[in-house]
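Structure, all two chains, one model.
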Amino acid sequence: MSISIFNITGPVTIGPSSSHTAGAVRIGRVARTISGGAIKNAIITFYGSFAETYMGHGTNLAVVGGLLGLEMSDPDIKRSLDIAKEKGLNYEFKTAFDPRYHPNTVRIQASGDGRDINIRASSVGGGAISLDCMNTYEMEIPCTMPTMIIAHKDMPGLIASASDILAQKGYNIGAMKLSRSRRGGDAVLVFEVDTEVDELTLIRLRALKQVKEIIYIPKV
Amino acid sequence: MSFTSLQSLMEAAAERQISISEMVIQLESENTGISVETIKNNMAEALSVMKKAVSSGLEEGVISVSGLTGGNATKMNTYRLNSKPLNGALSTKAMTYALACSEINASMGIIVAAPTAGSCGILPGVILACGEELECSDEDLIRALFTASGIGAVIATRATLSGAEGGCQAECGSAAAMAAAAACELCGQSAEVCMQAASLALKNVLGLACDPVCGLVEVPCVKRNGVFASIALTAADLAMAGITSVIPPDEVIDAMYAIGSSLPSSLRETACGGLAVTPTGLKLKEKMHNSTDLTDIK
């Protein structure tokens, strides 16, 4: 995969840490995007290195700033907890331990004007993140491109039908991952697409007989 | 084509009869579909953020969120302006600017990760000091930033830029390599000399551990940015004198990666080794855990 030079001389971000601050803002923003509306209540659980150092790195300020929709270069992140109070976002910080998780992992359980969410994500360095779990679906999504998470029943024809619908509108799939719990059981197909996908296409995809639900994450 | 090696980057540039910085711009445009004009504007924005970070860092009263670091840039600035430093005018200016930017980072200010937030002072320190002393235009500085980011992109592709993966040689070492190449670019040097400078900078910090005290991006990170600005300039001077690395640049990058993989995890951004577990390091960690007001911990 080719690297953008603006991930080398960039991103423009609030300090002090690419992984513990910039990446944490991005995770908050992804959570807000998945929820699809203003967040009113959030339980934010830090694991590993995040749990050890979140205060010194401002990781707590960063995640809340992201949940409020602030950009990682927004100096207001420094006072995000005050802004949260002004905007009616109730937050709670917890720490936990799980040796299976990446050292910079956070779980966000949130509700508000949009859908309730329970996500787990990790900050993998340089401001980049990985969305690792959403509700019960395990995954590893960098969220750098518009992404579709298609929860479906494992049966023949889904990949062909879904990619056909995308191809008809000229959407190009940049990356794809497929996993299933067991043969014929619950499965998840993830498409990372070059350009944002329109609502009509999402409706057509949701109508496919194998599909249970589709969560669409625009580029954050 | 992508950023797989410094050698192929140089050869591709020679084939198209363009500079390394132009080659980097074209590659970015080809890989992302973004126009050359937008790419140049984005880098101009990065330069602007770097300048602001340096000037803010030179003001009084800049202190980190934890209180562990602050005031070093102003100390260095006063010293260089009022005495005869052993390092020359350009070098001490670069060190001062690198410290300033790094202290802004530690105080949750806005910086350009170059390539990471922890190493964010080195490249701006060097190019802004060179820019002033050599009377370069913003266009010159932006070109140098493209050269630097090309070096960094190769290191990211071939090795790593992350302290957690490769230790501080991967972060500050890479930043120094990027800055050394940028300095040579500003002096009008060839692509070969820029690569040699990058290689000499990186080669001389191989094995450097990432052992941050209290796990924060402050000790030794802030002062390391100051020291590494000077390392970058030293490597640039060696390369401009015609001194070359016996080990070719791409092999130096590969060696850095191999060494990083051999480093124990205690020396790769876990704060479980080195400076982080000195008696003072442990005392500071204890204070941080017991304190709800972080500015208490020093």
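Chain A has a mean pLDDT of 94.
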